[in-house]
Amino acid sequence: MNVADNIRQIREAMAEAARRSGRPASSVRLMAVTKTVDDDRILAAIRAGVEIIGENYVQEAKRKIEKMGNESEWHMIGHLQTNKAKYAVRLFDMIHSVDRLELAAELDRRARADGRVMKVLIEVNVSGEETKSGVPLATARDLVRAVALLENISIRGLMTMPPWFDDPEEARPFFRALRELRDQITGEGIPQVEMRELSMGMTGDYAVAIEEGATVVRIGRGIFGERPAR
Ligand SMILES: *Cc1c(COP(=O)(O)O)cnc(C)c1O
């Protein structure tokens, strides 16, 4: 199967899952996750009309964006070191992996210097697994309130990565917990905070994530095939 065919199939499954959740297909955007993917196949995904390219590494993203341009949006989804904030602000349309105030404050400082407002999602570690990045569920609201005070940061929603399961149904409670957190935060009416986006769902579990309210699904293997071991 080629990239364009894979994208077409995924879009159909996305639309069906959106319908099951009582939403229009247009309420969920597709991100192609491109770590380890060669340039020709990324360009094929852009030509096939993916809305967003998702990158895990700043350095890799810089090279690709310079080559491929801004036809699609570029979003940062990997762990972001504070000392890379300067480059992240210049490269990305949105950063999904803000999980600590120190990072947000540095992004704010760099965004102000560049005269822009950086759109971010707060990454939440719903499962509490120690190997995962993300702010713990219990302190996520405190982080949102603190980041909301930064003038050059705009919070657009939440992101999560549940534990890996063979059966995607087992990921459902983690997606649901993120949606419930979103609804709680929305209810608080914090100024400057828009809880519009829920970035959740990958190749194995995106349909379940959409049923639970995802607005962005992040798909790598489903579009590009299995990744080589790194
Ligand atoms: C790699 C990655 C994905 C995509 O995973 P697939 O299983 O290949 O769809 C999604 N989100 C993040 C944060 C990733 O690192």
Category by helix and strand content: alpha/beta
Bound molecules: pyridoxal-5'-phosphate
Identify low-pLDDT runs: none
Annotation, overall tally of beta strands: 9
| CATH architectural type | Alpha-Beta Barrel
- Return the CATH topology: TIM Barrel
The percent range for strand residues is 15-25%
Q: Strand-and-helix sequence, N→C?
A: HEHEHEHEHEEHEHEHEH
Distance between the termini: 23 Å
Gyration radius, rounded:
17 Å
Q: At the fourth CATH level, what is the homologous superfamily?
A: Alanine racemase
Total tally of structural domains? 1
Q: What is the residue-averaged pLDDT? A: 96
CATH class group: Alpha Beta
Percent helix, as a range, is 40-55%
The number of helices is 9
Shape: globular
Sheet bearing the most strands, described? 9 strands, parallel
Would you kindly provide a written description of the structure presented here, covering whatever features stand out?
- The chain is of the alpha/beta class.
- It has a single domain (3-224), classed as TIM Barrel (Alpha-Beta Barrel).
- It contains 9 helices and 9 strands.
- The chain has helices at residues 3-20, 39-47, 58-68, 85-91, 101-113, 140-148, 172-188, 206-211, 221-224; strands at residues 29-33, 52-55, 73-76, 94-98, 118-125, 135-136, 153-160, 193-199, 216-219.
- Strands 1, 2, 3, 4, 5, 6, 7, 8 and 9 form a 9-stranded parallel sheet that branches.
- The radius of gyration is 17 Å and the shape is globular.
- The model has no long low-confidence stretch (mean pLDDT 96).
- Pyridoxal-5'-phosphate binds next to strand 9 and helix 9.
